[in-house]
Structures are given as structure tokens and as C-alpha cells.
């Protein structure tokens, strides 16, 4: 069916699919990027640490329900088509994100605030569960067989670029107002802006045609009668689903979230790096690393998907502990020498959520390595020197490289694993369990491990163990099927 794929320009297909997927990831990750502020706004203020863990758990709920979205929308995509299914997921995601920006704070509506956030987070997870499989399948079914890894790798950049865009919008919004205004109401703007992005993406996508392979299959009456039963009820296909999950997606999920979200959480909560500086560090590392998704996707067309993905998991598992140890040392105040002559105390008035005027006192410590620690009540913010920030960008960039190795080729790998008539359903479920459950729970599990063992690096136990387990399973079970005809 290769000749069918010339009905639309492949770059038009990639642009439309990638734009929508990027916006959905932006919507999904705004919540994670603002998790520290959200924990203060929507959860009881009596226990800040518990509120933050509750926020991470709410964030994780969006991941946990992604497999259910994969089943619901995957079935719809295999029955009615790829195009209209991921149009629907786009609208659900955009509407939910916009609504989060409108929810009053816990101070205003009490327990109803976290309940509403949870419901909208569930809708976000369901929508994203149906988005990725549709976009990846749609691009793959237009791409030539020998360049499938290359073309689908553009879809793979959207998750990281979505995170980058979320950070960029947050930083721009923060720079246009005072920190107090941003904390009070400015943080809502990135959520509300999503409605404009969704309208633009919907306009681009509505003009696309259906996948030529699906159109031909539907014309010939070969579409699946019951995609869920055929995907998971037949022993042969269920085996492929399990290989995709435990031999690839599980490890890919934890490597993805460790290198980006856990890295951001580690900077802000463990190292206590100042909000703007920590986001800039992550954003720069993401920009530097993004081209490697395409490099490894293209490379997988030549040497195979398996070698690159499994190498990424193994190297990541071996490198995480020394990388995070090096990051931790940069923020270790006990190893820094303070310039006592530059110690000062600043006082300023601010308004809390109930608009009451309060006086805040900030103690400012300056160190010989260029670091500055600002302590306001129990809150600490460390601004590191430029050279230290560059070191942190480098350490996170290395982690992003691991992400690109495991994530760049995986769309092509999953598409090639399953037959066309059940592809949307079959590939979506293992992908979203691997990313949504094993990956999405990583920030919460790692935070709990740190609290349990009282050690900064205890959170790494989880991603290292899962990545190594997936490497072993993948090494034994995966057979490379690069460039097979669809």
C-alpha cells in the first residue's frame, strides 16, 4: 500500500499531528510545571509537605487513567478512523486545561477545589491516552517504510517540546509581573492561554484527510469488529502487547520522567533552586537535547530500534546516581563559605490569598562561589552562580540524551509491532501503561522514598530498578522489525 501514502504531503501530516500533540502535552504538563504553586492554592495549607505530595498524586492520577483513555479512544480510532478521534481528544484536553485556570482556591471554596482539580485531571489523562497513539499511527501510516523511524521521531519531540513551551509560557508570564502577583493570580494565565492554542491546532487538523491505510482497509471491509477483543483476547497479540509494555514502554517511561520531571522536582524541592533559574536550566537542557530525538529516530531506521532503546535504558540506570550526586553537591550549603559582611535582612509587605496585608522578612546569605540563599520564614531559595547553572544544564542535558535514545525510536517500534486493523488500540495501551503508570507515578514514588529513607537520592531507587528490569526483559523478548511493510 506504499503508493497510497502519496495522497498528502508527509510534512503537512507531521506538522498537523505534531502541533496538536505538542499542545496536548503543553496542557498536560502545565500542571506539573506549576505543582509547587498548585499545592499552595488547591490543598489545605496546614501541612505544606503533605499538600505537595497530594499535588503530585493528583498529577499522577492523570497518568494512571491514560491506559483507560487508550482503550476508549484506541477502539474508536480503529473503528471510525484516526483523524476524528484525535480531534476529539484535543478538544477534551483543551477544555479541561482551561477550566483548571478558573477554579477558585482552597481558601475560597474549601475541599471542592482539590475535587474539581482531580476531576479535570482525570479528563486530561483520558484525552492524552487517546492522542498519542492516533498521532503516531497517523504519521507512520503516511511515512515510507525505510524512513518510518525518522518521520515518527518528529511526533516524539512533541512531549519534550510541550514541556519546554509550558516552562517558557510560565517564565514569560512570571517576568511580566511581580512574584507576588504571579503567585496570587498570574499562574492561571498559562492554563487560560491553552484555549487559543487548541483553536489553532483544531483548525490545522480539521483540514487533514483520513489515513490512507485506514481508508483502504475500511473500503475493503477489513476494519476490526471488536478491536479490544482482538487486541487483548487473542494469545498471539496479547503476547506482543506484554512485550511492548515490559520490554520497552516501562523502561522508556521512567527514563523520560526522570530526565525531565524528576529533574525539575529535584532542582526545586531538594536543591531548592530559585523558581525562575530552575525552570531556565531545564528549558535550556530540553532545547539542546530535542534534536537528538530525530537523530536517534533516523538512526533506528539503519541499525534497528531495539539496540538504541535498550542502550538508553542501561546507560541511564548506571549514570543516574553519579549525575544526581553531582547535582546535589552544587546546592550543598554546608560545603559553601559565606561572606558574612554581605549578610542582610530585607522586609516587605505582601498580600496572602485572603488579601490580608502581611509583613515578610527575608534573610539573604551570599557565598564565595557566587551562590545566594534567600530565606523567607520556612521557605528557602538558592540562586547558583552562572558557572554552576551551566554545570546543571550539562548534567540535565545528559539525562535528556538518555530520554531521546529510548523515546526517539519507540513510536516506529510500536507501530511495526501490530497489524493495521488493531494498531491504534494495541499500541496505545502498553505505551500509556508504561508512561502513565510506571513513568507518571515516578515523582510521587520517588518523593515518598525520599521521605521514607531521609536521603536526597533515595528517589532514584525506583527508576534505576525499573529501567534495569525492562532492559533485561527487552533483551530477551524483543525482535527488531525495523522498516517492515505496514
Automatic annotation (TrEMBL):
Domain Major facilitator superfamily (MFS) profile: 13-482
Keyword entries, A-Z: Cell membrane, Membrane, Transmembrane, Transmembrane helix, Transport
Location(s) in or outside the cell: Cell membrane
Residues passing through the membrane, by range: 12-38, 50-73, 85-103, 109-129, 150-173, 185-204, 238-258, 278-296, 389-415, 436-454, 460-478
Coarse class of the protein's main subcellular location: membrane
Coiled coil: none
Protein name: MHS family MFS transporter
Source species of the chain: Chitinophaga nivalis
Amino acid at each position: 500500500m506504499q503508493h497510497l501514502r502519496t495522497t498528502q504531503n508527509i510534512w503537512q501530516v507531521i506538522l498537523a499531528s505534531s502541533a496538536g500533540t505538542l499542545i496536548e502535552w503543553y496542557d498536560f504538563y502545565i500542571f506539573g510545571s506549576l505543582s509547587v504553586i498548585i499545592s499552595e492554592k488547591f490543598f489545605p495549607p496546614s501541612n505544606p509537605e503533605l499538600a505537595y505530595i497530594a499535588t503530585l498524586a493528583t498529577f499522577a492520577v492523570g497518568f494512571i487513567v491514560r491506559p483507560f483513555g487508550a482503550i476508549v479512544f484506541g477502539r474508536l480510532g480503529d473503528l471510525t478512523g484516526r483523524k476524528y478521534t484525535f480531534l476529539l481528544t484535543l478538544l477534551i484536553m483543551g477544555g479541561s486545561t482551561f477550566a483548571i485556570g478558573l477554579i477558585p482556591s482552597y481558601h475560597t471554596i474549601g475541599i471542592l477545589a482539590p475535587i474539581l482539580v482531580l476531576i479535570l485531571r482525570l479528563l486530561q489523562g483520558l484525552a492524552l491516552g487517546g492522542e498519542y497513539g492516533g498521532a503516531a499511527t497517523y504519521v507512520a501510516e503516511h511515512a515510507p517504510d525505510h524512513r518510518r523511524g525518522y518521520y515518527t521521531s518528529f511526533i516524539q519531540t512533541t512531549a519534550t517540546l510541550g514541556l519546554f513551551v509550558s516552562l517558557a509560557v510560565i517564565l514569560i508570564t512570571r517576568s511580566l509581573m511581580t512574584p507576588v502577583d504571579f503567585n496570587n493570580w498570574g499562574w492561571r494565565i498559562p492554563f487560560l492561554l491553552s484555549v487559543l492554542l487548541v483553536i489553532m491546532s483544531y483548525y490545522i487538523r480539521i483540514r487533514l484527510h483520513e489515513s490512507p491505510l485506514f481508508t483502504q482497509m475500511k473500503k475493503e471491509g477489513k476494519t476490526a469488529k471488536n478491536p479490544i477483543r482482538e487486541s487483548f483476547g487473542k494469545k498471539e497479540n496479547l503476547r506482543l502487547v506484554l512485550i511492548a509494555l515490559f520490554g520497552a514502554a516501562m523502561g522508556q517511561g521512567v527514563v523520560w520522567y526522570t530526565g525531565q520531571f524528576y529533574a525539575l522536582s529535584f532542582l526545586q524541592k531538594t536543591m531548592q533552586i530559585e523558581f525562575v533559574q530552575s525552570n531556565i536550566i531545564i528549558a535550556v537542557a530540553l532545547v539542546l537535547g530535542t534534536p537528538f530525538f530525530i537523530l536517534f529516530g533516523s538512526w533506528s531506521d539503519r541499525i534497528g530500534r531495539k539496540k538504541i532503546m535498550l542502550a538508553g535504558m542501561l546507560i541511564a540506570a548506571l549514570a543516574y546516581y553519579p549525575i544526581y550526586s553531582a547535582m546535589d553537591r552544587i546546592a550543598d550549603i554546608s560545603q559553601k563559605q559565606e561572606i558574612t559582611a554581605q549578610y542582610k535582612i530585607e522586609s516587605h509587605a505582601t498580600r496572602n490569598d485572603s488579601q490580608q496585608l502581611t509583613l515578610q522578612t527575608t534573610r539573604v546569605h551570599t557565598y564565595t562561589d557566587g551562590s545566594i540563599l534567600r530565606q523567607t520564614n520556612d521557605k528557602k531559595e538558592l540562586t547558583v552562580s552562572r558557572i554552576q547553572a551551566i554545570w546543571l544544564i550539562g548534567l540535565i542535558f545528559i539525562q535528556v540524551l538518555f530520554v531521546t535514545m529510548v523515546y526517539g525510536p519507540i513510536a516506529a517500534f510500536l507501530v511495526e509491532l501490530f497489524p493495521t486493523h488493531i494498531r491504534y488500540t494495541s499500541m496505545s495501551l502498553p505505551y500509556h501503561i508504561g508512561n502513565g503508570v510506571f513513568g507518571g507515578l515516578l515523582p510521587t514514588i520517588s518523593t515518598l522514598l525520599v521521605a521514607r529513607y531521609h536521603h536526597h537520592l533515595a528517589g532514584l531507587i525506583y527508576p534505576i530498578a525499573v529501567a534495569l528490569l525492562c532492559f533485561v526483559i527487552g533483551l530477551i523478548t524483543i525482535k527488531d522489525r525495523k522498516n517492515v511493510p505496514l
